[in-house]
Amino acid sequence: MQKKIKPIPLTEFKLRYNLLQAPLETNPDIKETLRQAAVLIALVQEQGELHVLLTRRPTHLRTHPGQVSFPGGKVERGDASLIETALREAAEEIALYPGNVEVIGQYPAMKTFTGFEITPVIGLVKESFTPQLDPGEVDELFTVPLSYLLQAENRQKQIYQRHGIYHPVYFIRYRQHLIWGATAAMINRLCSHLII
């Protein structure tokens, strides 16, 4: 039986994040031109414990319908940076405004088979906020305790073959939610980064 991981206090999270080298996984070898996107991996404090904020996309969307994701989306012409893209999208999708987010870093972009190159931006929510979901983008908003995600047995990896090449695909089950694909891979990278 694996020992349960204790919640990481906010100050320790920042220290670990800044001191440790982020692990890198190879991206799929995708030759086509990819659309640039950015997502916000937002961490909120709930009852003294850090939680990761996630959304579930509506089933009517053309890309990734019904999937669990982070707030985020495609880079728009007016965005000055990928960080600005992630923050703008979080404001539009769930009313988490840029002034309420302390950005602490970002990870290298992750390529997807669905035609995107997604940059994860990591941010801490400074104060509690009242979410307002854009029904065209978000069906549900929920959080998962970081301590749950840090437990290795809660993050599963399976190897799948695509066009003769094997790729890892991550899966995380939390209550009624199945988190998988790029979102689960980003969570896995964050957790691998934080575990000493």
Automatic annotation (TrEMBL):
Superkingdom in the source lineage: Bacteria
PANTHER family, alphabetized: MITOCHONDRIAL COENZYME A DIPHOSPHATASE NUDT8, NUDIX HYDROLASE
Pfam families linked to this entry: NUDIX
GO function terms (MF aspect): coenzyme A diphosphatase activity; metal ion binding
Keyword Cytoplasm applies: no
InterPro entries in the cross-refs: CoAse, NUDIX_hydrolase-like_dom_sf, NUDIX_hydrolase_dom
Cofactors demanded by this protein: Mn(2+); Mg(2+)
Species lineage: Bacteria, Pseudomonadati, Pseudomonadota, Gammaproteobacteria, Alteromonadales
NCBIfam families referenced in this protein's UniProt entry, alphabetically: PRK10707.1
Domain Nudix hydrolase, chain residue ranges per copy: 34-166
PROSITE patterns in the record: NUDIX (PS51462)
SUPFAM superfamilies recorded: Nudix
Keyword annotations of the record: Hydrolase, Magnesium, Manganese, Metal-binding
Name of the featured protein: NTP pyrophosphohydrolase
